[in-house]
Amino acid sequence: MGVTELDEMIKALSHPVRRDILNWLKQPSQFFSDQEHPLSFGVCAGLIDQKTGLSQSTVSAHLATLQRAGFISSKKVGQWNFFSRNDAAIQQFLTRLNEQL
């Protein structure tokens, strides 16, 4: 992980909604227990939209930023997109950040 990549990851965490999304995805059964599909798929983008109270396009942009930074991954099942945390990447980021500070 280079300095530029680390900077991009830090930028991805700079918005409170993106930090909220990562927090919700940490324990999806607590925050999205009403999802009809198995949570093993991840969390449906529509439920994340609802939880934030923001427009679909705004939430999609936040999810894309988190995905580009490597913090989340997506899986398409039928017409739905599901998102889950990439805990290995998050841990690697935290380790690298700790080394830098």
Automatic annotation (TrEMBL):
Provide the alphabetized UniProt keywords: DNA-binding, Transcription, Transcription regulation
InterPro entries with a match to the protein in the record: ArsR-like_HTH, HTH_ArsR_DNA-bd_dom, HTH_MetalResp_TranReg, WH-like_DNA-bd_sf, WH_DNA-bd_sf
Q: Which GO molecular function, any one, fits this protein according to its record?
A: DNA binding
Identify the residues that the record assigns to the HTH arsR-type domain, covering every copy.
1-101
Q: Record's superkingdom?
A: Bacteria
Does the keyword field hold Transcription?
yes
Q: Which SMART domains does its entry note? A: HTH_ARSR
Coiled coil segments of this chain: none
Q: Does the keyword Nucleus apply?
A: no
Any one Pfam family here would be: HTH_5
PANTHER family annotated for this entry? TRANSCRIPTIONAL REGULATOR, ARSR FAMILY (PTHR33154), TRANSCRIPTIONAL REPRESSOR SDPR (PTHR33154:SF33)
- What is the protein name for this chain? ArsR family transcriptional regulator
Species? Amphritea japonica ATCC BAA-1530
